[in-house]
Amino acid sequence: SEHLQKSGIPSGSQDKVSVLDSGPEMAEPQLAVDPVATSNLSVKAPEFYPPGYNQNFNQNFTDSSFEDRCDGYLTLAEYVQDFLNHLTEQPGCFETEIEQFAETLNGWVIADEALQELVELIYQQATSVPNFSYMGARLCNYLSHHLTISPQSGNFRQLLLQRCRTEYENRDEATKGDETTRRQFHAFVLFLAELYLNLEIKGTKGQVTRAEILQEGLRELLNALFSNPVDSNLICAVKLLKLTGSVLEDAWKEKGKNYMEEMIQRIENVVLDANCSRDVKHMLLKLVELRSSNWGRVHGTTPHTEATPENDPNYFMNEPTFYTPDGVPFTAADPDYQEKYQELLEREDLFPYYEENGADLSGPGELYFDEIDDEMDPEIEEAYEKFCLESEHKRKQ
Prior knowledge:
Elements: H1 2-6, E1 17-18, E2 30-31, H2 60-63, H3 76-89, H4 94-108, H5 112-128, H6 133-146, H7 156-168, H8 171-175, H9 179-198, E3 200-202, E4 208-210, H10 212-227, H11 231-254, H12 259-273, H13 278-292, E5 322-323, E6 329-330, H14 337-346, H15 367-370, H16 378-396
Antiparallel strand pairs: 1-2, 3-4, 5-6
Helix pairs in contact: 3-5, 4-6, 5-6, 5-7, 6-9, 9-10, 9-11, 10-11, 10-12, 11-13, 12-13
C-alpha cells in the first residue's frame, strides 16, 4: 500500500496493479487493462415496453397459479389492467387463461359501475396499445358470451357498442383534427374493424352472425376518411379495407348494394384529384388492384374430377423411369409401356435373389452366397498387415 502511494496510485486501485516483486529493486509497476465498463441498461427499461403498458406488471401471472392471482389486488381496475398487460406481453396464453379470467370477473363484476369500468379498461387498451386491437376484439367476443351480469343499463356487448358510438359520432371532427387526434381516431377505426370480424352474435335459432350495426358504421367511417384525404386518413382507410374489404363486399352484395363500387370510385377520384403523397397514391392503386383480384381469394372454376391421363397432363409425372436392354428410357406415358415392361419382367430370372425393388430374398445356406470366397487377395492381405504393423509402431511411440 505504501509503495502504491509513493507511485501516485490510489490504494483503492490495488486490484488494477500487477506487482512483479515487492523488493526495492522492483521497476515501475505494470498497470493491468481497465475493467470493461458495465451497462446501466435494464430489461425493464421503459423503452422496451409499448405505449400505455403498465411497467408495474404483477409477476404473479408467471410465478403462481391463476387461482391465487387476484389475492393481491385491491381494485377491479388493477386486476383487469394487469391481465390486459399480460395478454399484451404473452398473447399466446389467451386460450389457456381466458376461461379463468371470465370466471373471476363473474365473481367480481356484480354492479353496473363495475361493468362500465371493465368496458372502458378494455376499450382503452385496445385503442392505445399498438397491435392489441385484434386481441382486444377476441377478448370482447369471449366476455360478451360468458359474463353473467346483465344489468338494466345493458350487457357487456351493448355497453361496448355504446362506448364505440361515442367515438363514432365524432368522426368528422376527428378526421379534421390535429395529428394526435387523428392517430387516436385511426386506432379506434381499426379496433372497430376487428370487432366486426370477431364479435359473434347468436340469433334466436342458434345461427351466428356479425354485428350488422358495425357493418354500416364502417361504411360511414370510410366516407369520413375519404372526405378528408390527408395521408394519414387515407392510410387508415387502406388498412381498414385490406382487413375487412372482402367480408364487407360479400355482406353488401347479399343486400344487393354496390357500396364497394362506390368506395373504389372514391379511391380513383382521390388518386386523380387529391394532394396526397405519391406513396399513398401507390397504396390506393394497389388496393384497387387487390379488389380486382377478388381480394386475393382463389375459387375453383371447375368441380373436382378424378385425374386421368386424358384430363391431367401431369398424370405420369411421379411414375418411375425404366430402361430397355438397349438403354432407352421409358415410363408409363410411353405408348409401348406395357410391352416393354413385360419384357423387363421376363428378364428377372437374371437376378433370382432380389425383388423388383432390390430387397434381398436369399436365406442362409443359399448356393449363391456359399460360393463367395471370403479370403483376401494376397496383395491386399500384404498391404493390410503392413498397415497394422505401422499402426502398432506409432502407438508404442
